[in-house]
Design brief:
By secondary structure, the chain is an alpha/beta fold. It is about 45% helix and about 10% strand. Strands 2-1-3-4 form a four-stranded parallel beta sheet. α1 runs parallel beside α7.
Length: about 200
């Protein structure tokens, strides 16, 4: 069975369960129901990288690391070059670019790409005009995107908070909206080839 090491889930068991569920539901909505990988929520980016890097990539099983890029990505098809430059991460032995999936620039970018789902989730008070413009979503750094999500939901009964809310929304997102993002399309292409 394939395994994907995910950034997300913090240190608590409940949040890790929610992280796995959100990604599983999203992948199901994207058509991977019959070939679902085992999803491993690892907490922070570095923890996810360390867990992934400690695996035997030559085992014949498809293994991948899925983390936020944090910054815009210059060459989507060279994700290891991005994390080498920005994080100083070494490419694990036998790893290829298919072993690294990037949420460009963060999972919150995916939320911003689907304002209709966010409107249904947050209800009245949601201000989509505070989100990054569709053409700028993957060009906006992770911190700015998170701030914009907080501003867009500031007038809602329950404003956006990273973690639990993120994972609840993940499983509800419209894959057609996400496919407008080149970084997300690349993730789906890699998974289609390897799962």
């Amino acid at each position: 069975m394939a395994r994907i090491y995910l950034e997300g889930g913090g240190r608590g068991k409940d949040l890790r369960v929610r992280c796995r569920r959100g990604f599983r539901e999203l992948l199901e909505r994207c058509g991977f129901q019959q070939r679902m990988p085992r999803l491993v929520a690892c907490g922070g980016r570095k923890e996810a990288y360390d867990r992934f890097a400690g695996q035997n990539l030559g085992s014949g099983e498809y293994l991948a690391l899925w983390v936020d890029s944090e910054q815009p990505v210059q060459a989507l098809h060279q994700p290891w070059a991005h994390v080498q430059q920005h994080d100083g991460w070494a490419v694990p032995p036998e790893a290829t670019d298919d072993n690294l999936l990037l949420a460009v620039t963060c999972v919150e970018s995916w939320l911003a790409a689907d304002p209709e789902t966010m409107r249904r989730f947050f209800g009245s008070g949601f201000r989509p005009q505070k989100l990054p413009a569709a053409r700028a979503i993957e060009a906006t750094d992770a911190q700015t995107t998170a701030t914009q999500l907080q501003q867009a939901t500031a007038g809602c009964k329950q404003p956006y908070r990273k973690g639990k809310t993120t994972f609840e929304l993940l499983g509800r997102l419209d894959p057609q909206k996400l496919r407008t993002l080149p970084g997300f399309r690349r993730c789906l292409e890699v998974l289609q080839r390897n799962l």
